[in-house]
Amino acid sequence: MSASSCRAILGQSGARGVVAAGSFRYGIPRRSETATGPDDQRADATLRVVAEYADLWHIPGGDIGDAVDRSARLDRYCADLGRDPAEIGRSIFLPVSYERPDSTRSAIDEALAAGFGHIVLGLPAPYPDGVARWVADQFVPAAVRVPATTGAADGAFS
Fold it and tell me: Rounded to two decimals, what is the model's pTM?
């Protein structure tokens, strides 16, 4: 089904759509659903649909400069529709480097500074012992960390 067909159906029903890998999934019309685009997130049609129907936009990583450019394009489409761009959360996937955690921290800082408030960290396999605790210690600020309620490993790994 094309984006314009989905847009027409959603517009008639009043529902908010969830776009996943270029296809729509219909849900209850509310302001908590997510829209993600296909791998070719550059498609203006996708960004227009996100501007009209989404509450969260996810970009699957890549160059932060490119993500910022796409985000600005999304803002323009929102403005064209009379929608406040701040109504749409920004989400980005960032790979984790076990060998270079400083580069991962830098990427997180850049994404946050660029307005991406939701960060999805991708961990490469194989997963070292204690990786969840290591990720929390390395990348989650102490102010937002929730104390563990299970016997998670406390040590770092190498």
Answer: 0.66
